Amino acid sequence: MASEYDVPAIRRTHDILRVLASHRRPVKASELAEACKLARSTLYLLLDCLEQRRWIERRDGGYVVGIELMALGSAYLRQDGLQTAFQAAAGAFVARHNEVVQLATLDGFDVVYLAREDARRPVRLVSDLGLRLPASACALGKALLASLSPEDLAARVPDTLPRVTERSLATRAALDQELAQVRNTGLAQDLEEVATGLVCFAAYVGVTPLGKRIAVSTSIPTDRLDEAHRRDAMEGIRLVARDIALRVIPGA
């Protein structure tokens, strides 16, 4: 059973970092105080401590995430040899198909994007590293949800499915139907459910020795997705998933 013991300094630090990570610009101390509901005296003590350790940095009258926090966070990918495995498999896919490849994990009912190998041509994406999306709305999420036990799945799925576009799944029955198809075919897809004009295909990789449940996907604009390219991309992303699994998951 998880402990409910609370360490205020850690909780407050976490809140500060989450606010900074959610902005693309420096965040002023006054904004942090309001967002985190902290007294100025407490806030400045925490900011000073975080700045000394370079978890945050001062920029243009505000604060941004610092280089040391980035270095610490990148260990999540380096562990298990996941970064090296992804780069090798995704690089081969991009060289052959010239489409982007994304790696993600499941956190509760959220998909969290971990890595991306870009194509040699522009594509409008919503997969910034660290971004969270509802698992029911994207191909990666469906691939990951389909890998769960019935009990684990039931514990994660909310009563109301969050939607990103009007094409996102709206009901548990629709989600269950899609997950059954994923289990049968080994491939998940979203058809403009995250972004209009973008189709995604995803395949489940597995659970790494350190417990990361991961999947990979490719995202392709609808205006260049003919039937031949669709078939090639679907088979290609299956091969990427298999390649990564062989490199990082014992017994795959």
UniProtKB/TrEMBL annotation:
GO MF, one annotated term: DNA binding
Domain of life assignment: Bacteria
Keywords linked to the UniProt accession: DNA-binding, Transcription, Transcription regulation
HTH iclR-type domain residues: 7-67
Residues annotated as domain IclR-ED: 68-250
GO BP term, example: negative regulation of DNA-templated transcription
UniProt keyword annotation of Nucleotidyltransferase present: no
Record protein name field: IclR family transcriptional regulator
Organism whose genome encodes this protein: Achromobacter insolitus
